[in-house]
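ligand=MU-OXO-diiron
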Amino acid sequence: MKSRKIVDGVEFLGTADWNRRLFDSLIPLPDGTSYNAYLVRGKDKTALIDTADPDQWEVLKAQLDDVERLDYIVSQHAEQDHSGSIPFVLEKYPGAKVVTNPKCRDMLIDLLQLPEEVFLTVADGETLDLGGKTLEFLYTPWVHWPETMSTWLPEDRILFSCDFFGSHLATSDLYVTNPAATLEAAKRYYAEIMMPFRQPIRRNLDKVLARDIGMIAPSHGPVYDQPQFILDAYRDWASDAVKNEVVLPYVSMHGSTQKMAHALLDALVARGVKVHLFDLVVTDIGKLAMSLVDAATLVLGTSTVHVGPHPAAHYAAHLANAIRPKVRYASIIGSYGWSTKVVEQVAALIPNLKVELLDPVICRGDPRAETYLQLEALADAIADRHTRL
Ligand code: FEO
């Protein structure tokens, strides 16, 4: 795709990665992704904000064809999906300076082996005058890494937010045309990489909202020309409020744990609780992460393999611990053959979750009448806790 004008002097240089299906060798990308760079032309100087994944350099390079001179490459975030083409851009424009903060500079030196002399470092709130276009740099740590910053262009009321408010969407749309689809992709994105940082996100929201934002130009996904819905969504996701929902991922080897998971599902639904059920053998972990954004309770179902949790349940517990959802309650259900330590072992895997552990339901072999009564009691306990939310 060619570069596209947003306003006079500001262009979108999008590189859509239509076929990418995994990010960080971990995160599923059902809709691909994009790496957005932006060109800001002042009367005196020209700046490129972020670059692209190095795999997409040829696409970005073609969009820079008519740019004879580049003075600055603003690097808002050191992760290679945005910084990885900086060495190529510097090769094309040897006089350009990489503008970033000291923490990001150090990371770029480590990650890309850039020489120290190419950098121009900026403090939080510092500005760079391009001639009728001013770039103000706002440190916004932990959206996504500690060095991440945003850039505010006051003349056009555009916030270049890098990963903040981003969505993994490969699209030919410059602007959001389907808010519901963008919200779904942005929530998936938030769940997978932003959720551990809810406190910094709230501070960063307050910081950027001190500006009268007209547009948000993230480095993934379409531009928000009417950004209120994504700002409202981030406020909600990063808040402490939880919903009357249970996330119930399970893995079952011979069907017993599956029977228990479905019995608990039925018992919860009968009590008016919404349930997100996932068979871990087939589930998309992005969907699982998304369901954890709002839910009040996590119940993990696992068979026992050699005394401990099934590896798929181990992985899910580890993942939930890493992304730190705001769940308040947790429990464990499952079946075993001759001996089990799944409760202790799973509980030890989720120290980051500040939860009340509700009585687990563990049975030997096939669930019996007594097991189903215990599952009903667990559903009672969950429904009761949820009425206090
Ligand atoms: Fe899109 Fe954290 O990089």
